[in-house]
Known about the structure:
CATH topology of the largest domain: Rossmann fold
Helix content: 40-55%
Number of helices: 10
Number of strands: 8
CATH superfamily of the largest domain: P-loop containing nucleotide triphosphate hydrolases
CATH class of the largest domain: Alpha Beta
Number of domains: 2
Radius of gyration: 25 Å
Distance between the termini: 86 Å
CATH architecture of the largest domain: 3-Layer(aba) Sandwich
Order of helices and strands: HHHHEHEHHEEHHEEHEE
Strand content: 5-15%
Largest sheet: 8 strands, mixed
Amino acid sequence: MEKLEAALEKARLARKNAQIGVEEIASGPRIVKSPTSEAWSNLPEVTITPQQARNARIAALLGGKDATPYDMLRSRTIRMMKESNWRRLAVTSPNAACGKTTVSLNLALSLARQKDLKVLLIDLDLRRPALHKVLGYRPAKSMHEVLAGNVPFGDVAVRCGENLIVAMNNSAARHPAELLHSEQSRVVLADIEAKWRPDVTIFDMSPMLASDDNVGFLGNVDCALLVAAAESTTLQNIDVCEKELAQLTHVLGVVLNKCRYNDTSAGYGYEAYE
């Protein structure tokens, strides 16, 4: 009798476990979106067409041979940043027309092709903002209004692909230096990082020799790249800016842009990194 009761109990347990298994298989694993991923997906998406990419020199969009210089820059930059646990990178230049905005966007796109990285690109050249022109998208509000605490970040941000957010301006700021130097800006940027959780944040800054905008802000970043234009940026200007940058943050290197020399044997020649 006891053996019979034990056998019946064993059968009941087996049926119960089988039912649980069927329910788990039928329902499948539940995928719950995190608030961060939902916020990213809710942003408007900007698609860069091949023609637009050619016109704006956005070579890093799809990868390949034309993207090689930016991919090399990406690899060296991310290696150095990971080694030091850095997340914030400023991109600046000695003067205007060195191509810092083009380099910033291409570097961001190259980084974003690595699916495990979430990248944030913010236009902080508040005197002559240019990212909206390169992307062909003018937001209703400006990033300088976000820094002032008057506009939410989502109103000036768009998504390029799955893991790149670009925040832009639609006009210049009236008092950019005072805004960038303010504690308010530091708090806003910290809040943005806390909500959107990027792995790397790139700031497209104003030229070093054009104003004092960068002096009070670069203490908020971990490192910086200096973009120089071949045949127009002087060695003296590079030296002056590199020394000033070194007093404010860590200098990753100098990007030589607009270089005519094309080393076809290496498969690249658009720019060099040192």
